[in-house]
Amino acid sequence: MASSIFEKLLLEKVNQFKKSFSETSLEVFHDESQGKLIHPGEYGTYREAIVRDFLRFIVPCSLDISTGFLITSMDNVSTQCDVVIFDSNMTPVYEESDRQRFFPIESVHAIAEVKSTLSKKQFVEAINKLARNKALSERMDSRPVIVKKSISGGYDPRNCPYDVIPSFLICQKLDFNISNIENELDGYYNYEVEYRHRHNMILSLEDGLLLYCVEDGKSFPYSSARGINLKNRFIFSGDNDYCQFKVFAAFIFMITTSKTLFFPDIVNYMGSVEGSFQRDQS
After folding, report:
1. Which of 4, 147, 32 is nearest to 89 (CA)?
2. How far apart are the C-alpha atoms of 108 and 88, rounded to whole Å?
3. Which residues contact 137 (CB under 8 A, 6 or more apart)?
4. CA separation (Å) from 199 to 14, 144, 148, 180, 184?
5. E strand intervals along 53-194
6. What's the longest Cα–Cα distance across the chain?
7. Using CA atoms, how far apart are residues 237 and 134, in angstroms rounded to an integer?
8. Pairing state of beta strands 30-31 and 36-37?
9. 13 pLDDT exceeds 90?
10. How far does CA 123 lie from the centroid of its chain?
11. Bridge partner residues of 45 (DSSP)
12. Nearest C-alpha neighbor of 127 from the set 188, 51, 42
């Protein structure tokens, strides 16, 4: 059984998302007389906003969605993330005067890249960039303070996928031969990328959904679990045009709610406070 009300609301959101991402954005920013995009930067920003609006229907209200950079207490900074999902109650958001936003990794629940049509070269660049940003989630104290964790145990990113920031990519289309992509995908990653830092999901609106599968045959939105690297799976439309979107929505809810929340101690982000004087009450 399922809720007919929820399914109708979800399909309405999916249809609105597909139309806005694929059609409305082009209608607004494509000049037919010149056959090219006008204001390509704004076009990308518009599409990112469309994605964030769709995600707000899926992601719990306790989490907020923005765009910006990840920072660590070890002085690392990511490249810009098109989507940053974070715990709004635990995240001190730092902004520069030009409104660029910076998010401590401890309370980030997911990151994403938003793309249009991708060639094979562009796709390889995008997933490796996403992996490098995801790897920053482990640039924290070896014994961070855990605020909330879905399962028992301490901090263990090598074996517990919930301790690593999830990542996903959304694009219009993969513009290359994908007839065997589930078997070729491993070769697209640079050799230094740890398997656990690979994407959680890749949603191509026109092609389908890339994720993983476990031994019992079920789909799974993590590349590894308990130290075991999982096999790729590609889900695409058959009789149900909404199948990959439903799976994507279900797993976005799962990975964002299951992510371990750490305490972002701002003292660790500060420079030294030595060099001052102090007097105590006598």
Report:
1. 147
2. 9
3. 70, 105, 108, 157, 163, 164, 165
4. 22, 24, 23, 18, 15
5. 63-71, 81-87, 94-95, 101-104, 108-114, 117-118, 146-148, 167-171, 173-174
6. 81
7. 29
8. antiparallel
9. yes
10. 15
11. none
12. 188
Token pair for 204: 């191509």
DSSP label at residue 278? -
CB 51 within 8 A of CB 45: no
Q: Which residues of 188-208 are buried (b: 16+ CB within 10 A; e: fewer)?
A: bbeeebbebbbbbbbbbbebb
Q: Could you tell me the two tokens for 1?
A: 């059984």
What does the chain come to in residues?
282
Instruction: Answer yes or no: are the C-beta atoms of 70 and 133 closer than 8 Å.
Output: yes
Sign of CA dihedral 137, 150, 234, 16: negative
Q: Residue 28: its pLDDT value, please? A: 53
Q: Measured between alpha carbons, how far is 76 from 72 in angstroms, rounded to an integer?
A: 5
Q: Where are the alpha helices (DSSP H) in the chain?
A: 4-19, 25-29, 40-58, 120-135, 181-184, 243-258
> Mean per-residue pLDDT for 128-151?
94
Q: Contact at 8 Å (CB) between 261 and 90? A: yes
List the single range of 95-99, 135-139, 277-281 with lowest mean pLDDT: 95-99
Neighbours of 39 (CB within 10 A): 12
Global pTM value: 0.91
Exposed e or buried b per residue across 233-253, where buried means at least 16 C-beta atoms within 10 angstroms of its C-beta:
bbbeeeeeeeebbbbbbebbe
205-250 pLDDT per residue, tens: 999 999 999 988 999 999 998 889 999 999 998 888 899 999 999 9
